[in-house]
Amino acid sequence: MTYQLTENTLVLSQDYELFFHNSGSVENCLLRPTEVLLKFARRKDICITFYVDAGMLVSMRHYAETSREVSGMRDQVCRNIEALAAGGHEIGLHVHPHWNATRWTDRGWDFSNTRYSPRQYRAGEFFDICKSYCEELAEVAGAAITTYRAGGFCIQPFEHIGEALHALGIYTDSSVVPGMYLNDHDKSFDFRKVPDAPWWFFDGEATVSADSGRFLEIPISSMRLSPFFYWGRALDRLRQRQPPSVYGDGLSKAIGKVSALRRLMALERNVEMSTDGPKAPLLESASRVGNERRLCHIMGHPKLLSTESLNRLERFIDQHEISRFESVASLANRVRAGLSF
Ligand SMILES: [Zn+2]
């Protein structure tokens, strides 16, 4: 049986994580903005998919044995994730393997000499990391994990990631942002050529559809961006700070100079539709609801939520008369039950 979306539908996902360069605090990057998101979700009756950086939980568990500070942080984060799951939100697996070699020091989390991208790991090594992260997350969430988002969108090549996900019984991915491209030293992806569809099945690579593929891709919607956006961000970075209205108090690692320059020089490029402080104002001009097929998937990060983000999102919801909300998992279930476009 096949059926179609009859209402304008929004999927909202959030990558629940600290910053990679200067981590920032659990309080400001995770707890406070998540509380704001939850309040909004309750009011609008939205179920959010939280992609939890599970390596952070594993690292916190490890260092909690010797540090009371980390132990306290871990308790807070675990309680927060339990509350998200209890509130009916989806907890998905987000893998940043660099946590495997991240150390806790008197100056906080030290990410130096870690490897960022899955492709920098041998297959068996990545498999073990993925498995331990997923088990930890399922235990904390008290729920089965059924969907995946690659850290930094690094879902290519998929072969080893796919083996790990298959072993974990995870067959839905949400890492592809159509049209987006980055080729940086340790972070790269190429989504310039993807199926023109709101979702697709795949087996080999997440960007190549295969009708009988085991995996389902629920992509993140993208929008066009002018280079002026990056000029503003470059200024913030020179000042070594987030824009003032963002909750998170850390700083992520800068992309390489060549990639940064490419961004500043490009005439226009695709980026993910996002609730992140700097990008949320652009939602208004993102004229189409994903592929004009009644579906839009907006992502974000609690750490980059701003005091304005959810006002912008609410305006977007009104503007596009969105009346139905799905998590990544609930949409995947409907697709597998015969939803078509
Ligand atoms: Zn991430």
Account of the protein in words:
The protein is of the alpha/beta class and 341 residues long. The chain has one domain: TIM Barrel. Strand 2, helix 1 and strand 3 form a beta-alpha-beta unit. The structure holds zinc ion. Zinc ion binds next to loops. The site of zinc ion has 6 residues, from loops.
Average pLDDT, rounded to a whole number, is 91
Name of the level-1 CATH class: Alpha Beta
Number of helices: 9
How many individual domains? 1
- Give the oligomeric state: single chain
Let me know the number of strands.
Answer: 17
Largest sheet: 9 strands, mixed
Choose one word for the global shape. globular
* Approximate strand percentage: 15-25%
Topology:
Layout: E1 3-4, E2 9-16, H1 26-44, E3 49-53, H2 54-64, H3 68-86, E4 90-95, E5 103-105, E6 108-110, H4 123-141, E7 147-150, H5 159-168, E8 172-173, E9 181-183, E10 188-190, E11 200-202, E12 215-217, E13 222-225, H6 228-238, H7 257-265, E14 269-272, E15 295-298, H8 309-319, E16 324-326, H9 328-336, E17 339-340
Parallel strand pairs: 1-17, 2-3, 2-15, 2-16, 3-4, 4-7, 7-8, 8-12
Antiparallel strand pairs: 5-6, 9-10, 11-12, 13-14
The structure holds zinc ion.
Zinc ion binds at residues 15, 17, 53, 94, 96, 151.
Would you kindly provide a brief summary of this structure?
The protein is of the alpha/beta class and 341 residues long. It has helices at 26-44, 54-64, 68-86, 123-141, 159-168, 228-238, 257-265, 309-319, 328-336; strands spanning 3-4, 9-16, 49-53, 90-95, 103-105, 108-110, 147-150, 172-173, 181-183, 188-190, 200-202, 215-217, 222-225, 269-272, 295-298, 324-326, 339-340.
